[in-house]
Amino acid sequence: MITLDRLVNVLGGYGVQLRVCPMPRSAELGSVVLHEVAGGGPVTGDVLLAVGARSVDEAVRWAVSARATAVLVRDDDGTASSAEAAGVAVLVVEPAVRWSELAAVVYGLVLEGRETESGRGPTDLFALADSLAESTGGAVTIEDALARVLAYSSRQGGADPARVATIMGRQASERLHEFFSARGVFAHLATSDDPLFVGPDDDHGLSGRMVVAVRSGRELMGSVWVSCREPLVEPERTALADGARTVALHLLRSRASADLERQVESDLVIRLLDGSADAAASASRLGLPQGPMRVIAVQASIDAERDAALLLAFERATAGFGWSRPGRSALAGNTVYTLLPGEQATAARTWVTGLRAALPDRTTVTAGISKSATATDLPAARQEADECLALHESKPADSEPPAYDESWDEILLQRLRTAARSGRTPDRGPIAELRRHDRAHATEYASTLRAWLEALGDPAAAGLRLGVHENTVRYRLRKMGEVTDLPLTDARKRLAMMVELAAVDGT
């Protein structure tokens, strides 16, 4: 639940202006509806999205029927008297703002009561854990489907070392997890909605637990744990079961608002990367500070499976409070793109390292980092990040992701190698003829020529590179002249030979 003042302030950044406000802006808002009739009567709510209204007066009539405090309407025909008389606040939406995008923001703000307009705000799971602790008489922990701690009660009745370690580690230790698995806890949660008691175990610092599944339909969304030395009896047992259903509703609502927010964020990031948006305005709406930023392109896989790993990477990249996440991310095709403020490549590599650490152990992460860019240069930076990503794929998986300003030379050669693999290298000329001679006679003329060129014509330095005497280098150069026309005195041709050798040799 938020106030009208909060709604007005946040939506002001999305192209929405307050037109009429006949009540205090401290009025609280707790629900959002569209204009429709269900069950023989209008749907009611605090905020009405007047999609399809032909005038402000019509939108106000809909709001009165819905008993709404505020109405959002597209057309501002200048009328205001009906709204003043009806006691309805009117917010006018600019024509360029899409209803689908605006609805995501409004639903997220009102239903979740967010503290930030750019990120996922706090839910009241902790308050719910406190309420359950009161009704069951024991300390409560709420976990997700992966057994990660989502919330816990401030009440410590029945708390034990296992609970403390679980909360501190944000999940049960591997040893405790194996203990619960051996007791059949996870198998029970997967198939039953009945609370299960797990008896005390001194070896694991466990005083006893009552656990129940949190489920939506057939999907296991998490679990609720209560510290207790004996199985709960009525009415505490029923309170726990009812509480699990309430937790499910909270998790569903949180998931829905998170998905809506991800859609809004992803759309804005993609528009920036495509160059199809007002760069400064879109960056501001994303909560990105003014100044340089880098584009990070990420791909992930678990063994041969890419889709699940990529979705998990996107979820982790967009998890948490908006103000606590330094970057803003989008999922486009098979790549996660993140806009990360800052000029140094070190910060971008640290971000990639943190993302990799948050994923399962078997996940392979490859990434590429653009040169620092302003908001208007992001389309070019995206291409740089893509090329660095392709370069990283050719390197060991545990190597640092390349940054464009540090690796432009390797990227240039990578482009040349790509051209070479597509058959664009000459099959005639000195380099091609030397390679054919090497294959036919087991000579090393091509590698000798490359070493001599890289040593700027110094036979001694070339010999050190090859591990041979400088006279051997001179001898090979004379023999190369018998195989092909070797234009060593022409600077442009020397450069062309160096490029061809670097492109085809791949190093």
From TrEMBL:
Domain CdaR GGDEF-like intervals: 277-390
Top-level taxon in the UniProt lineage: Bacteria
Residue ranges occupied by any PucR C-terminal helix-turn-helix domain in the UniProt entry: 447-502
InterPro entries linked: CdaR-like_regulators, CdaR_GGDEF, PucR_C-HTH_dom, PucR_C-HTH_sf
Family: Belongs to the CdaR family.
Protein's name according to its UniProt entry: PucR family transcriptional regulator
